[in-house]
Amino acid sequence: MDALYEKLFYQSLRIRLVEEKIAEIYPSDKIQSPVHLSIGQEALAAGICNNLLVTDMVYTSYRCHAYYLAKGGDLNEMFAELYGKVTGCGKGKAGSMHLASKKVNFMGSSAVVASTISNAVGSALASKILNKNQVSVAVFGDGASEEGSYHESLNFAAAFKLPVIFVCENNGLAIHSKLEQRHAFVVHEHAKGYGVKSVYIEEGYDFAKINQVMEGIVKEVREQSIPYVVEIKTYRYKEHVGIGDDHNVPYRSKDEFEQWKQKDPLIQDAALVAKFTDEINKEIEAAVKFAEESPVPADEELLADIY
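^ that's the sequence the OP posted. Answer follows.
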């Protein structure tokens, strides 16, 4: 089997198994913050981050576990952060929605919708001024594309020709509101009004397709110092926030869920799932053990690293 396919499959499966472990632990109240799971959307993080250098910068929304892991964030530090421990990537202050790792230039995530998009544009501007040859990536949901900061960021990036990729994870929902109830525009088509190149990927379950498309885009953005909008259709399996299923409520369709699962390689390719699961689960169990055995922050940590 193709080595690249197996690599992307492994990365995607690792994200899913990590989040399934989070869902297993969550009822115990050991995890000290709300969680927004990316189960069903893992292919996007794997296909995008596979084309980035360590020096490239990634900014995401609160649904950030997948990108933290795909960019190379430390799994021990991630679980410790979820547990609120001082060994976490945010020393126990960040929680699930605000993961970051400067070591791999996963620069941050935020619970405030669309807030990290302008951060990515700012880092792209700095990269251009300082001639750093970095690409910045902003990842957000379709709901964030309605915010003023998204439109301002798109305009600014286009006007100053900045090396930034805007990735819209379009799962068709802003919490419970459907896309057709909210949008008078199509994200990738709208970008052209700013003179920004764009692409739409229908097969958001296909990490190989996403990887292939992103390879050319990252190269073009890096070499030409231009912004690019990438809209990818995807589907989240769990509720907006939390670990529950919500396919029996009016805004969701069980049929749509089943149709997406029929295309999901992490479900359909049972042989590769079996090949990699034990290895990944051992890593996860070690990370959970690390988190549970780590100390809670001391009082003096309360105001440390706050500027």
